[in-house]
Amino acid sequence: ETGVTQTPRHLVMGMTNKKSLKCEQHLGHNAMYWYKQSAKKPLELMFVYSLEERVENNSVPSRFSPECPNSSHLFLHLHTLQPEDSALYLCASSQEQGLNSPLHFGNGTRLTVT
Amino acid sequence: SQKIEQNSEALNIQEGKTATLTCNYTNYSPAYLQWYRQDPGRGPVFLLLIRENEKEKRKERLKVTFDTTLKQSLFHITASQPADSATYLCALDSDTGRRALTFGSGTRLQVQP
To answer: Residue A93's pLDDT is what?
Structure first.
């Protein structure tokens, strides 16, 4: 158990579907993140939330919509995705939103868009 | 543009030897550098953090160096074991003001028994 739980672990969706990824952290951290990991590419930062406020939106297409209802939960709402959006989506948390604060990752949601 | 380079080719070593992985960066002046381990199908796990004013950091069989002149960090695993086989990622802060880590693409380490 990593302290950061992501559900579902695997998701297959069509391009017209709407789905949501869920992340929950049990560590009492104040910052949460979404990263995208595609094959043979570095992790790409998508969104950062600090104390439930979005502080970073890394030019992510609007078909990805994050939501942070409280400091323990983070969602990524998906709609009208493209096949190139297929990837491993990783959620992470840190004690505070600072560059010297290690990230604690969940095990990701493997997303396949057909 | 800013760039982080890790050897994309897998590193194969014999059990008991020291593994050395390299992280080079350009157009950065990072204040911190972090190393993570990632196993297949799992999220990365934090290993070590080193600050720009620290030359070396150790944790059990792990050692990290940080040379801001060479713009390079070396990650060493001494007395390597097959269980050390994984992908190792380095991560830095960013000069662009982005308030989160930027990761390299990682190096796959395979320790042969």
So the answer is: 95
